[in-house]
Amino acid sequence: MIRILDKGFDPDFELAEFQKRAFGAGAIVSFTGWVRDDGATESLSLSHYEGFTETHIKGFVECAKSRWALQESLIVHRVGKMSVGTPIVLVATASVHRRDAFEACDFLMDKLKSEAPFWKQETKSGETVWVEPRQQDKSDLKRWDNARD
Amino acid sequence: MAVILFFGRFSDLSKRIDVELPAYVTDKASLTTYLSQTVEGFASLAALKDTRISVNMIVSMTETSVGNDDEIAYMSALSGG
User: Fold this and answer.
1) What's domain B2-75's architecture?
2) Which chain A residues have a beta carbon less than 8 Å from that of B73?
3) pLDDT exceeds cutoff 70 at A85
4) Topology of domain A2-37+49-118, per CATH?
5) In this prediction, what percent of chain B has a pLDDT beyond 70?
6) Does the model's ipTM exceed the 0.90 cut?
7) Domain layout of chain A by residue ranges
8) Do the Cβ atoms of B56 and B70 come closer than 8 Å?
9) Mutate to test the interface with B, among A5, A49, A53 (most CBs of B within 10 A)
10) How far is CA A43 from CA A36, A57, A78, A119, B13, in A?
11) What's the pLDDT tens digit per position in A47-76?
């Protein structure tokens, strides 16, 4: 399941619902990303291309399913303006054994960080700037190029 | 009427333009030339190497024809999620 929301969500609620859907799975792994407090950030604003972004994320999930034995997956992603301490993204994966769930969750986050069609603006000290892609995110994604085929 | 959408840094210029394309605009390259002439600041963004163009939500590295029934999107480098 993929959901892109323009208002806040409760990761605990989403995860509880996911656990119901994944009943019987031996392993559930989740990751929640939050707007971090770096002492300067006032807000973060994400935009997406409706329809296009969802299609790309579905492709990431299909890719994950082809590599790991996933029973269920969940991606919840915020768009719009967010303040420090707000959840941005939740990824959850369920599988029979832990390794598939761990790696698929990690992989999906790397795909979201590097290849998902989102555009981000940060407001710091009253100034709003576009966030450029990070080399670290690209390096993280490359870890999967030669891993387990 | 073609719909042209702008994302990322392009959205600083405009969010959306609905336009009857001139006859000489038949593909992505000629559309980019047209927009460079009509939208201030567009040319420099379009020239950036990470710029992506989709036609009806499909991104292709090869030349693609465009027409008045199409939705074309200009996207600056992705920030990621």
Assistant:
1) Roll (3.10)
2) 49, 52
3) yes
4) Aldehyde Oxidoreductase; domain 3 (3.90.1170)
5) 100
6) yes
7) 2-37+49-118
8) yes
9) A49
10) 10, 24, 13, 14, 22
11) 999 999 999 999 999 999 999 999 999 999
